[in-house]
């Protein structure tokens, strides 16, 4: 072995690279913390992580978005935000190490992060002012300055050693042996102070952002929903099958599925909320307040909602008792006529406070079904997650063409003139809910005992109703299940089947028939463009 090979590698170089990476992380942390704090004065949605996340959602291919919902469920937004933070961390580490050689350029690289966040914030559909760029811009300036200072401590000689003149952006000389050529004390003081200040700013920003919707929270607490003028019939006895493991007939608010694109749930003050109705065929425009809705005739109905992202056998379906104002009555007061009556508009575009647009067929909204502007869910004001103060519902249509949450605007137009958010992303313009059924129990890969095993679940075909449910064991004949009592044709229907289970592995399959006589199709399709189809099956082993 040569003398050169025996010579130990310079530990100072590795140390300095590690400290450069740390400097980049601290600068990135400071930038995000300051941005979070500044967003308090602007709006929570203007923060860089939320803005970039929203832009990422808008540009994510449908197949990827569908995969995320399928695999992460309602945690998909958390996964996205963690992914953004991970990318930013890697970017910050790279900048920190690069700045050791090119101090000014590396620090300026943080400004690129700010530019991306500012562009994302100001390009969001709900952005109304250039001030949305401020959180990202100010955060990036602070981060760039901090990186410049920290790297300066790494490049400076110890305080008792005279500094050699260096060009600010020129490559450093070879690292001094054993990391002796840097201002250790100055770096530690600066890094510690920066970390503490950033943590404080971040925590303060989180707290203030969390309290920024207190007016909305207070307005919700002050709402006392009046008794509905048109009450929903009592849920019939026997609507809930007495089989363990079956979903409750009425889904509790806390368990109701949530699928939307909002990284920050909008908190709208009901006292300041307004809804404008305008557009093609509207002869009398209206602007309504929340109190205006409370003073109108209120309708209460049990309605099952289904997300178009629900795979066969999936969880994104729920049933609740809603209170609201009939939408067709409001539209008629505005002079709107459906296309079948000569109206010029065939699409109703609902806009949310977060910029979401949802297009619904005017004909369906005005055909007599219980389409409504809902203000209550299961006897309480709407939860913020589910659209407080007002959301739209149209029984029989998938949510992406009917269920606008946090609604603020209704425009009458045509399908030829305007494509809503999801239609621009290759989903169908019109999407009636498909006839579907699901096995809730036994669960996949369950190991029940031989003998009588209760197979049970739910089936739905909103606005048509369920007429029959059948179960098949392996490749045997279809056997008719026992249907629970029906609440209405707009709700799901539970079912059960007493299976005489023999030992061994078995496949249980279910299918439903709606009241029009249509049998649930066996053909498997994915959710795009208008909802999944196919039979739901589970595999069990009987012991």
How would you explain this protein's 3D organization?
- Helix 2 (11-42) packs across helix 5 (76-99), helix 2 (11-42) packs antiparallel against helix 7 and helix 7 runs antiparallel to helix 8.
- The strands form 4 sheets. A 5-stranded mixed beta sheet has the order 2-1-10-5-6. Strands 3, 4, 7, 8 and 9 form a 5-stranded antiparallel beta sheet that branches. A 4-stranded antiparallel beta sheet has the order 11-12-16-15, with no helix packed on it.
- It has helices at 3-6, 11-42, 48-59, 62-72, 76-99, 103-122, 134-155, 184-211, 214-221, 290-295, 327-333, 362-365; strands at 274-279, 286-289, 299-306, 317-326, 347-352, 357-361, 372-377, 380-381, 391-393, 407-413, 436-441, 451-460, 466-473, 479-480, 482-483, 493-501, 504-514, 536-542.
- It is an alpha+beta fold and 543 residues long.
- Strand 13 (466-473) and strand 14 form a beta hairpin.
- The model is unreliable at 1-11 and 166-179 (pLDDT under 50).
- Helix content is 33%, strand content 21%.
């Amino acid at each position: 072995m040569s003398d050169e090979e025996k010579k130990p590698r310079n530990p100072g170089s590795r140390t300095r690279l590690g400290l450069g990476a740390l400097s980049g992380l601290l600068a990135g942390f400071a930038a995000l913390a300051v941005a979070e704090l500044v967003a308090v004065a602007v709006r929570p949605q203007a923060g860089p992580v939320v803005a970039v996340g929203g832009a990422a959602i808008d540009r994510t291919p449908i197949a990827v978005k569908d995969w995320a919902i399928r695999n992460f469920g309602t945690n998909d937004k958390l996964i996205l935000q963690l992914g953004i933070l991970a990318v930013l961390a890697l970017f910050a580490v790279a900048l920190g190490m690069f700045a050791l050689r090119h101090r000014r350029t590396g620090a300026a690289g943080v400004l690129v992060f700010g530019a991306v966040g500012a562009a994302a914030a100001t390009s969001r559909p709900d952005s109304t002012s250039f001030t949305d760029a401020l959180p990202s811009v100010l955060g990036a300036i602070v981060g760039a300055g901090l990186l410049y200072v920290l790297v300066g401590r790494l490049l400076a000689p110890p305080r008792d050693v005279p500094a050699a003149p260096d060009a600010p952006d020129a490559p450093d000389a070879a690292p001094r042996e054993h990391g002796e050529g840097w201002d250790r004390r100055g770096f530690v003081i600066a890094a510690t102070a920066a970390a503490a200040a950033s943590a404080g700013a971040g925590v303060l920003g989180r707290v203030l952002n969390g309290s920024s919707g207190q007016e909305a929270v207070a307005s919700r607490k002050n709402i006392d929903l009046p008794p509905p003028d048109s009450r929903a019939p009592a849920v019939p006895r026997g609507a809930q099958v007495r089989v363990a493991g079956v979903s409750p007939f009425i889904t509790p608010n806390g368990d109701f599925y949530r699928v939307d694109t909002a990284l920050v749930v909008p908190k709208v003050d009901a006292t300041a909320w307004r809804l404008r109705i305008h557009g093609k065929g509207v002869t009398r425009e209206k602007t309504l307040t929340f109190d205006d809705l409370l003073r109108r005739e209120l309708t209460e109905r049990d309605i099952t909602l289904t997300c178009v992202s629900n795979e066969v056998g999936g969880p994104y379906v729920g049933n609740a008792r809603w209170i609201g104002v009939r939408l067709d009555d409001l539209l008629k007061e505005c002079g709107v006529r459906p296309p079948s009556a000569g109206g010029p508009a065939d699409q109703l575009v609902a806009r949310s406070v977060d910029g979401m647009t949802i297009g619904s067929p005017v004909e369906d909204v005005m055909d007599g079904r219980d389409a409504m502007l809902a203000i209550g869910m299961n006897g309480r004001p709407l939860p913020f997650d589910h659209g407080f103060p007002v959301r739209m519902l149209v029984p029989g249509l998938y949510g992406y063409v009917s269920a606008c949450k946090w609604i603020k605007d209704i425009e009458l137009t045509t399908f030829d003139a305007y494509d809503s958010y999801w239609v621009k992303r290759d989903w169908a313009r019109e999407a009636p809910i498909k006839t579907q059924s699901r096995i809730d129990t036994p669960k996949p890969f369950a190991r029940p005992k031989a003998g009588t095993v209760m197979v049970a679940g739910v089936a739905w075909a909103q606005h048509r109703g369920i007429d029959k449910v059948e179960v098949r064991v392996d490749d045997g004949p279809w056997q008719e299940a026992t249907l629970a009592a029906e609440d209405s044709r707009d709700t799901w229907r539970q079912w059960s089947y007493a299976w005489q289970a023999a030992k061994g592995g078995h496949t249980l399959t279910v299918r439903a028939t709606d009241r029009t006589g249509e049998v649930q199709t066996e053909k498997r399709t994915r959710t795009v463009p208008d909802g999944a189809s196919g039979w739901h099956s589970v595999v069990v082993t009987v012991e």
